[in-house]
Amino acid sequence: MHSVVCIKQVPDSAQIRVHPVTNTIMRQGVPAIINPYDLFALEQALRLKDRFGGTVTVVTMGPPQAEVALRKALSFGADEAILVSDRAFAGADTLATSCALASTIRQIRKNMPVDIVFTGKQTIDGDTAQVGPGIARRLDLQLLTYVSRILEVDHGARQIRVERRAEGGVQVLRTALPCLITMLEGTNEMRFGTMADMFRAARAELKVWDRLAAGIEDPSLVGLKGSPTVVGKVFAPKPRALRAEMIETATQEPKDLAVTLLAKLFTQHPRIERELARRAV
Amino acid sequence: MIEPAKKPARRKVELDPRFASYKGVWVFIENERGAVHPVSWELLGEGRKLADVLGVELAGVVMGPPGEATRGFCAEAFHHGADFCYLVQDEVLRDYRNEPYTKGLTDLVNACQPEILLLGATTLGRDLAGSVATTLATGLTADCTELAIDPESRCLAATRPTFGGSLLCTIMTQRHRPQMATVRPRVMAMPDRDSSRSGRIVEHPLGMVESSIVTKVLEYLPDNRQDQPQLVYADIIVAGGRGLKKPENFHRVWDLARVLGAEVGASRPVVQAGWVELDRQVGQSGKTVRPKLYIAAGISGAVQHRVGMQDSDVIIAINNDPNAPIFDFAHYGIVGNAMQILPALTEAFRAHLAQARKVG
């Protein structure tokens, strides 16, 4: 069983702050983490390895600093790590990213066939959920998004059965290997790495692949050049024309404030009063 | 995956001449198990505006199993603003599967050449949009909060939150067609239904047989809806945030919600801290809502939360910081400690509504 897990190093978005005056991102001191959604994919790949043996290869595209994310993945128990890094990849949108990652996986499977490619359901910084489907399409893999459970892997028959989250329910699907799975969040919990894995991760020589090593001959397919979407202005949302009507009373007592608010609300929005009266118990 | 900071402010790029003939706005009419997802009607409302600005037609794309139900979705699309519909009916389209739907939509785009293609940012829409955009090698912008036509280039200007939802950015696909975008449920307003509207139906074959499709649907287990928060289409929502200080204080949000018959929502920090389940998160990385009344207690109103609830009819904000951004877009504000204001509000609503019901 050979799984390739695509991960991304992202800024911990809970800690991003915007400068109140200039509206620019204050990046200083924001820690970089493995995209939390990717951990569910990695843990699932490790569980398959526990059961069937084999290899887990982690791949990330990013700047040289992204090696920290790969070492972390190795410390959880991944076997191999490849950093795909080249200035030519800078400014990639999701189409260009899936191009670089798909080409990388083609190179990987020249040495060892790949059974399952795993990704998280989306990243916390881009939130697009587009790269997984993009890689599947480029490698002509069956695509299983939002997988909540792997029910069965029949390695001999090259088949897999999974549960997939759909809009109003769960689909039970059967498909052929190789396939690409995007794991749903909350479906497992990342293990603690063993001492041995932590030492191995700290000392490991990471493979760093540039554009050509990743098998991309044409530089216009990746990075900014390979991105059909163009990001224009970045801006803070405009305030509403009118600021909130502030409720104030002489006492500023919670009870008075509440009563004053209700009186205003129901006078100005009788529809809401009717709606509430209709439903309240 | 989009990293705007690394890109130059704007590149002036001409449309590739291959795409000069691409015309019209399309909306994918998402239907599963005999029902259309309401986000499709919301998108038709928005697509209508874009088509009118461009002076082109608005089409719905209906794919599904053969039968009156599927055909009926076309009529419903006309009532919600479509000029005409493409209809692809095939037994293999009975359940959603990536492969046949990707082929069907991709073939249709190549044959009929729209300039804009919109899909709902649902599990189905995101699965399909990512695959179709990659096959067509065109630009796709996810989770847009605003769509407009750039007057200069006539390109689709798709605005979405960026940097973890702290700012907004406008994205355009200048050289490629179609320009694709997904929009989450409830981000756009539901258009008025006009049952006098009708339109023409253009049928297209899928050209696929079941034996050629690798993935099989063995079973479908519908959700028990009563078990799950129905936040997205709720009319009244009470939401709590970090201002409540401790998880044990969150029951004050539930208390008020119970009196109002409301759903409970939460901001990202308290969901991440594990106070409240993920299904109740409101914001860019959670659900988008537009209830008639939204009460935000102890929520500062960061962009990431704001884009998920700013279109609520009436927003009441309670926050102890008079400079909290939420007061810039709420309708009513109370500066104060949410822990004290919430119980007072609960009591005031209880008393008032008991009175109103007696009178009514």
The name CATH uses for the topology of the largest domain in chain A is Rossmann fold
* Helix percentage of chain B: 25-40%
Find the CATH superfamily of the largest domain in chain B. HUPs
CATH topology of the largest domain in chain B: Rossmann fold
Q: Bin the strand percentage of chain B.
A: 15-25%
In total, how many beta strands of chain B?
A: 18
Q: Care to count the β-strands of chain A?
A: 15
CATH class of the largest domain in chain A, anyone? Alpha Beta
Measured distance between first and last alpha carbons of chain B:
54 Å
Q: Biggest interface between protein chains, with counts per chain?
A: A-B, 93 and 113 residues
How does CATH name the architecture of the largest domain in chain A?
3-Layer(aba) Sandwich
What's the architecture of the largest domain in chain B in CATH terms? 3-Layer(aba) Sandwich
Low-confidence stretches of chain B: 1-10
Number of domains of chain B: 2
Can you characterise this structure?
The complex is a heterodimer of chains A (281) and B (360). In chain A, 31% of the residues lie in helices and 28% in strands. Chain A is an alpha/beta fold and 281 residues long. Chain A has 2 domains: 2-221, HUPs (Rossmann fold); 239-281. In chain A, strand 9 and strand 10 form a beta hairpin. Chain A is globular, with a radius of gyration of 24 Å. The N and C termini of chain A lie far apart (57 Å). The mean pLDDT of chain A is 92. In chain B, 28% of the residues lie in helices and 24% in strands. Chain B starts with 24 loop residues before the first strand and ends with a helix. In chain B, strand 2 (31-32) and strand 3 form a beta hairpin. Chain B folds into 2 domains: 13-212, Rossmann fold (3-Layer(aba) Sandwich), CATH 3.40.50; 227-359, Rossmann fold, CATH 3.40.50.1220. Chain B contains 8 helices and 18 strands. Chains A and B meet through strand 3, helix 3, helix 4, strand 9 and strand 10 of A and helix 3, helix 4, strand 7, strand 9 and strand 10 of B.
